[in-house]
Amino acid sequence: MQKLNNIDGGKPFDWGKTSHDYAKYRDIYPELFYQKILQRGLCKEGQTVLDIGTGTGVLPRNMYRFGAKWTGTDISENQIEQAIVLANSQNMIIDFYSCPAEEIKYPAHTFDVITACQCIWYPDHKILAPNFAKILKKGGKFLILYMAWLPYEDRIARKSEEMILKYNPNWDGAGEVRKPIWVPEEYLDFFNITYQEEYDVKIPFTRESWHGRIRACHGVGASLAESDLKAWDAEHMKMLTEDAPTEFKILHYVSMAELTVK
């Protein structure tokens, strides 16, 4: 159980509680998302890549086909268990293990790339920044990735946010707008920001898959009490049945930042 003062007003959350939903419903990045990474010359054959906050291994599993050697770490043992199951089912050789990002230890110059997808807000960057600069090779890259729905431009996303806030008023994931991904200032002593980009994507969902996607966020499945989650489940699905078609697309934006070791 994590409790971070800068997240949800310090309300505890546990990604392990969402592991099954995460494994089933969070693998939603479009092909463009992966091609944009490749266009930067990253996460491809001949490279070693460390993915922190890997969750169920969405990034390593989807980019495995491009030939890099992947390692994925996550603070949640339940998430890593799902990552291993999913990778094994696809005959992928990926080194997954559970570990807080602050405790990652490797020899100097081990990795070509470190990736952080949907997780930059959680770790202690005073520890991570010098360690990442050390374990990356000369000219190595730290890639920060993020994708979020746009509630002010998408009616269904807005209604789902309103329902999360009804059950979890402290949830701070609401009201997302397009902006560059946050680069913690601690990295600027060790890295140069060499590339940033934001772009829009429309992600297809069914009522069930969108419901599962929302339930897998930290404001719902990772933090609500069992009784509240049961009530949220019923009310959110009722809203979707009444207000959403059986299939639809949700407008998202993607933000990426590439940092290069000084």
Question: What is the topology?
Answer:
Blueprint: H1 19-25, H2 31-39, E1 48-52, H3 58-63, E2 69-74, H4 77-89, E3 95-98, E4 111-117, H5 125-135, E5 136-149, H6 155-167, E6 191-206, H7 207-215, H8 226-243, E7 247-261
Parallel strand pairs: 1-2, 1-4, 2-3, 4-5
Antiparallel strand pairs: 5-7, 6-7
Helix pairs in contact: 1-4, 1-7, 6-8, 7-8
Element order: H for helix, E for strand = HHEHEHEEHEHEHHE
Q: Please report the number of helical segments.
A: 8
Regarding quaternary structure, how should these chains be classified? single chain
Give the N-terminus to C-terminus distance in angstroms: 35 Å
| Biggest sheet features | 7 strands, mixed
Unreliable parts: 1-6
Radius of gyration: 18 Å
> Structural class from helices and strands?
alpha/beta
Strand content: 25-35%
Helix content: 25-40%
Instruction: Categorize the overall geometry.
Output: globular
Please state how the strands of the largest beta sheet are arranged side by side.
Answer: 3-2-1-4-5-7-6
Mean pLDDT: 93
Number of strands: 7
What does the model show?
With 262 residues, the protein is of the alpha/beta class. Helix 4 links the parallel strand 2 and strand 3.
Brief summary of the model shown:
The chain has helices spanning 19-25, 31-39, 58-63, 77-89, 125-135, 155-167, 207-215, 226-243; strands spanning 48-52, 69-74, 95-98, 111-117, 136-149, 191-206, 247-261.
